[in-house]
Amino acid sequence: LTEEDFVDVVRAPCAAVGRALALLGVGPWPECVEKHSHKAASRRDAGLSGRIGPAAAARVEAALADTPYAWMLDLSAMSWPPGIKRPEPAAH
Question: What whole-number distance in Å separates Cα of residue 91 and Cα of residue 8?
Fold first, then answer.
């Protein structure tokens, strides 16, 4: 597994989540459409659903809820918060 840079994740959320799910062998991935991309202009007010669509957003939110990584749902975050351990890659 490779570590994803957080800035790359917020720039291209569909691609980043797709790579993570593929590495985990999770599927099928619902259709993911980036509504707003950092390639053009940041639209943090759009929320996750507005960025990748309601079905994909619900799946991401459910996966991160009640985990130390729920902070990733905060679209204003720009760096890994102190005190949160980075996940260790798991071999499959």
Answer: 23
Cβ atoms 64, 73 nearer than 8 A: yes
User: How far is CA 24 from each of CA 2, 36, 69, 92, rounded to the nearest angstrom?
Assistant: 12, 26, 17, 8
The DSSP 8-state label assigned to residue 46 in this structure reads: G
Tokens of 33: 């459409």
Q: Rounded to 5 degrees, what are φ and ψ at 70?
A: -60, -25
Rounded (to 5) percent helix, strand, coil in the chain? 45, 0, 55
pTM of full prediction above 0.85: no
Chain position carrying tokens 């390639």: 39
Q: What are 23-49's pLDDT values in tens digits?
A: 777 766 678 877 754 555 556 677 888
